[in-house]
Amino acid sequence: MNKKKQYNIIFSRIILAVLLITMILPIRVLASDRLWDSDTMPSTRQKPRLLDNADLLTDSEEEQLLAKLDETSQKWQCNIVLLTVDDHTGEIQDFADNYFDYNGFQADYGGSGILFMLSMADREWAISTSGKAIDVFTDYGQAYMVNAMMDDLGYGDYFGAFKTYVKECDKLLNEASKGTPYDVNSKPIRTASDYMSYALYSVIIGLLLALAPILKMKADLKTVKMNSGARNYSAGGPTIRARDDRFLHKTLHKTPRPKDTDSHSSGRGGSFGGGSSVHVSGSGSSHGGSHGHF
Fold first, then answer.
1. Which of 84, 139, 162, 271 is the most buried (most CB within 10 A)?
2. Tens digits of per-residue pLDDT, 224-243?
3. Model-wide pTM > 0.70
């Protein structure tokens, strides 16, 4: 075999190796980007309830949040999960559903759970709910929860936003435990700390309202001067004029109050008509959820 043929063989092998690397590399990147090992649902949970892949939190903040996530999850027997990524593949709702399923979160608490995900490349968020949590976290409840986090997300206070997420999950799970999940016809949620705050504000406002006239009267008294005699008070004497009021007639207009004709479904309806919208994930599991940008 001459040198020319040897060079051709070596060159061909190099080209083949480059082609193989080019084909394998995207698969490896995709597998890493997916954040789960395989497209099968494991029998045990594979990851902690907090995964900050986008590195938005300090180590101390991660430790605090994870402890709160674990505590609240155990309290309500419902996985409460947080995920941040720099970017993701496919639709963010599908990614959130698959992350929950293929990392074994379905294995805990009969599959009941909620995941909040942030993807920083396009500033997207997604919520995925599963099991009993689908009915607990209605579409309206999810919107309420995201709205509570939105200011902190917009200002880049991710630790504050995630603390609010855990707190609102606790509130909504507590509401559902009373028999009725938080939905379109629900009253605003109030906690014991809320009532204590209202009471404190009421006391402060009451004190300010009470002090205002007292301070005014005190200021007015500074203009009072002592007189040596009573002449200034008696000059001219009193003048009384007779007056009377006469009632002539009364006109009263009545307008009937319009009745509420809106009807809201009590089941899984979605679109703020009441209940939770449901879809099927890649694993074949039912999920509720929503997504958007911040």
1. 162
2. 566 666 565 555 555 556 66
3. no
